[in-house]
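Students often ask why we bother encoding 3D structure as a string. The short answer is that it lets us treat folding as translation between two languages. Here is a chain of 373 residues written in the first language.
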Amino acid sequence: MKTSIFTTVFLLAQLAVWGQEATTQIAKATEFTIPVSPAFDLLAVSPSQITRPSNIREFKVDWSFRSWRLKPNIAIQAQPIWELAYNRPDLGKYRHASKLMKTLSTLDLSAGTIEDADQSRRASLAAKLNLFRQHDPLEEVGLFAKMDSVYRKRQDATLVNMAMVRLKRDAATDKQALARYDNSLDSLQGIYDREASMQKERIQTVAQQYILDHWNAAHLDIACGKLYAYENAALDSLNLRAAGSAVWVNGSLPVGKRLMLNGTVRFMKQVAQDSFSTRINTTSGGIGMRYGSPKFTFFVEFVFSKFKSDTSFSFEEMPELNMAQLNNFSTSYGGDWRINRNVLLSYGVRLDHSDGYKVKNIIPVAGVSCMMR
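And here it is in the second language, the structure alphabet:
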């Protein structure tokens, strides 16, 4: 009898823990998109020139492909404050944190490296902070509360029935009675397991509906970073050709259920390691529109840039020093496909235009972003 009581208490405790952990894991997976890392955004190797602002709470890896050749175009991304302070099965600590700490928990660090067509290399380090998000699923206390309450009541009742059957079975001596009680326990265990499986599906349904309703929610991100351009001096060495720093802002606004407007403003300073140590200041801005849903989106973007140098310097003559791959006027077209909640495939074509708005360069780009859950 003591064994049965102990088993019942243990199962009740496990039920509470499972319900909390399952709900928490689903809630943490309700990011509205999987954006490209700020390091790749700074290197301008993603299909979209205007990154969708968002907030991820997982380690992430990005790959970028600008040709069919295998190149080391990779970026890694993580949120250290979230991981160290708030990535817990219980969301209570995050929900009771101050607004400042919730903002700091979105601090995002990333690093990336790519190889250009001329075998030169570029690298970047970036940090991003989410200043505003219209919806935060981790703060939606009532999102899963009602279904959790109903679920726990049902499972508690099943566990109580199982405990009563076990008590009767322990007191029984007749073989037929023992067999009946064993069948009853098997039946109740089946009910318990099916209800747990159905609860997972219900949580997934609510989470998916939440994303569907808010996929184009308003966000505002601010980021800063460092860039470096190298050339291969030998098989085992690199020469620094240019270095720079940048700060930029990305924002988005919803328009109905299907449209999103997004924009960016960026300031960059760079020093080219030429005979004059040329300093180049760049100001760029862009606006874009996305149409779609959480699973598919299609975008069109327009980006303008202005360059200022302290010497007679031209990126036309030394394109390898244009670390952010900017142009006076560029347009981009493409889209993305969220294959599942962990993987996003993006694709696009960038067109660089001359002063007369004629197309002077066409760059097809594809990328893969993978959440390492």
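Translate back mentally: The longest strand covers residues 237-255. Keep this in mind for the problem set.
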